[in-house]
Amino acid sequence: MLISRGTLPPSSGKGVKPNPTVHKNFTKWKTSWQPTDQTLAEPIIDRKRVEESLFAVQQRYRSLFENSTDGIFQITPDGYYIACNPSLARLYGYESANQFLSHVTGVGQYLHKDPQRRYQFLDLLHSKGLLEDFESQVYRQDGTLIWICESAWAIRDATGYILYYEGLVKDITKQKLTEAALQTAQAKLEAQSQELENVLKKLELAQEHLKQSEKMSTLGQLCAGVVHEINNPLNFICGNV
How many domains does the chain divide into? Predict the structure, then answer.
């Protein structure tokens, strides 16, 4: 038979005394639950700490992303730009990252003086997962050419699947101009050195000719003296005859 609230006889509550055994068991039961409550609270606290640490890391990364003097970009596995920092936008002559992302379509191959260079960059990145110091000539928004150096790496999930690529871009135009000037100066120096070497060879030949001429002159004088010595006795003999 089911017992409900209506089947119980009314009670005045008088004469009800607490059962010491029940009270003792309840106290033990309540005490036994206290560590469990603490145990349940610990994972919550740990998760909160992890979330706070993760948030702090994200904030530091965001600060580095926004304030880096180098250009930073993120592209899809297919090569489409999905994010960039202000420095990258300025490098290409744009006022903001949003302006750059709204103007650059596709994989950005038209930014390169040689469009195939962009595809080479993506092919190497796909095959290696990491690419360093890849140099290219690209156009800024105003049409001027600059040299850049790119490094990029894959960002993967826990299973190893590539989510996107992230990379750094540096403007190395001044470095390239300096290298070109040094190469020009080196070429001029080598040309001057070769010219000087040719002059020295000509001088050596002239000196050799001069020595030969001096030898011939000395030999001529010697022969003339010998002839003179020979002629004197002959003249004496002929005169006496």
Answer: 1
- Dist CA 138 CA 220 (whole Å): 76
Q: Is residue 139 part of a domain?
A: yes
Q: How far apart are CA 58 and CA 62, in angstroms?
A: 6
Instruction: Let me know if residue 211 belongs to a domain.
Output: no
| Between 73 and 204, residue with greater pLDDT | 73
Q: Return d(Cα 106, Cα 116) in angstroms, integer.
A: 14
Q: Residue 89 burial by CB count (10 A; 0-12/13-18/19+): exposed, middle or buried? A: buried
Answer whether residue 141 is part of any domain.
yes
3-state DSSP assignment of residue 74: strand
Characterise 198 by phi-psi region: left (phi > 0), alpha (psi -120 to 50), beta (else).
alpha
Nearest to 30 by CA among 22, 18, 19: 22
Q: Is residue 130 part of a domain?
A: yes
* Phi and psi, residue 23, nearest 5°: -60, -40
Give residue 205's pLDDT: 84
Classified as helix, coil or strand, 155 is strand
Q: Which residues contact 65 (CB under 8 A, 6 or more apart)?
A: 72, 85
Up-side HSE of residue 24: CA atoms within 13 Å toward CB? 3
Residue 102: domain span: 68-171
Assign residue 127 the CATH number of its domain: 3.30.450.20
What pTM did the predictor assign? 0.60
pLDDT-based confidence at residue 60 (cuts at 50, 70, 90): low
Give the confidence band of 2 by pLDDT, cuts at 50, 70, 90. Answer: very low
